[in-house]
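haha ok so turns out i had the wrong file open the whole time. this is the CORRECT one, sorry everyone. sequence first:
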Amino acid sequence: MLDQPPEQQPKSKPHHAGHRERLRERARTAGIHHLPDYELLELFLFRSQPQGDVKPVAKALLTRFGSLTAVLAASVEDLMTVKAEDSRGRAKGVGAETALDIAALHEVSRRVAKEEANRRTVISSWTALLAYVRLSLQHEPREQFRVLYLDKKNQLILDEIQNRGTVDHAPVYPREVVRRALELSASAMIIVHNHPTTPVSITLDHAQYH
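then structure:
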């Protein structure tokens, strides 16, 4: 009599099976704005990494850079240094395509903020101006000297980088700043200079022309 082959045990599903759809459903029903930062980042990573558990990668990104804003502002090279392990001890990380996707999301956010600043009276909304400047500068690894040129209604004409420097030095030439203001028929300028140190600081100076 032939022996019967042993019954095969059903394979156990990984703990993250179905997690993507559950997270999407929670975002749809409860509202995406209620998700914590790591889950919001997970939703985005689903597109970049269509298979596997991306929660360890999302959490590793936030641990490495400290905040969601810092994750988006990180360079492609720095993003690709992030490593994590899934529940089975397998190595996970940020590849070139995922890093580029994150960089693209940051650029979209930066342009949206710039468009909003271009449409509003900048000086009358100091809080909004600071938010716009911080989004552009707070994670820059090198010093920048930027000039925001304003019209006679104090609306933003142009946000221009006059010079990029080293970690602690960014040369600037007043003659070039004034020449550019005349070219644009600017009535006023806001001069922005960042200090990429810890803690990060941003200096704002205001110059008025008549």
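The two ends are 106 Å apart (CA to CA).
again sry for the mixup
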